[in-house]
Design a protein that fits this description.
Elements: E1 5-15, H1 18-28, E2 32-36, E3 42-45, E4 55-59, E5 64-72, H2 75-87, E6 93-95, E7 106-110, E8 116-120, E9 150-158, H3 161-171, E10 175-181, E11 187-193, E12 201-205, E13 211-218, H4 222-234, E14 239-245, E15 251-257, E16 263-269, E17 280-283, H5 287-291, H6 300-304
Parallel strand pairs: 1-4, 5-8, 9-12, 10-17, 13-16
Antiparallel strand pairs: 1-5, 2-3, 3-4, 6-7, 7-8, 9-13, 10-11, 11-12, 14-15, 15-16
Amino acid sequence: MRKGIMRAGHVQIRVLDLQEALTHYRDLLGLIEVEQDDQNRVYLKGWTEVDKFSVVLRQAEVAGMDFMGFKVLNDEVLEQREQDLLAHGYEVEHLPAGELQGCGRRIRFQAPTGHHFELYADKEQTGKWGISKINPEAWPRGLQGMKATRFDHCLLYGPNIEQTYGLFCDVLGFELAEQVVNPDNQKVAVFMTVGMKAHDVAFIDCPEANKFHHASFFLDSWEAVLRAADLISMTNTSIDIGPTRHGLTHGQTIYFFDPSGNRNEVFCGGDYHYPDHPPVTWKAEELGKAIFYHERVLNERFLSVLT
């Protein structure tokens, strides 16, 4: 958190049928439905998250990601990061408090990959779902599905990876935890963090801009990932790959799709990162093992199915 950005705070996902998507994200993934606003957007959160929401679903004609937001420490940091963005030539859009219900004012900008991101300092805090702030129990009763604990990160595909790496690390204060480089030592994938997590956002080089690969949610254990795999089969949910392990980050994972074709990941474990840790580097020729450590090859869906 070198420049006051604390964590990945929310993602707004476009879905083709809101009710089908709600059944998927609430009943299967296990997110908590918070409310619906006058724009017909549905707000959800993982049960351990203190802030009011972390996932927003919006019905649209094309699936994908509208934007991803990061929470900063306070309003002073928000002002400073806005000035940094402007000084580096990025246009900044202002969104008023309340445009997302329960969220303070936001500033939005576009990365060189074509994706939209935003920063905000304030969001209503409703606390962990079903857990008291005083003498809390270990976990709440009534959780559904996979019992996702929190929204963790997004993986995004687009061009201009070096420039995007510069934006996030030099301007916003993220740190490079892992990377994939080609034989010319150029970055083809970057995994960046603002804290101890393996990554808060990651990018893979792709000629087409603004493509959404997946939103990822954290589970407590490998047993929970295996249970998620059972639920995927029990509900005939479209699966991508897993359960398996990543080489990058070493997390244990499974990938699957929502009814609109947006990819989700649930995972557990994974590496941690401190500011004095040098980036871990994978060679592009070992990308299969880097992504799917056990299979050591990439399936076609993982590379080509994007929203």
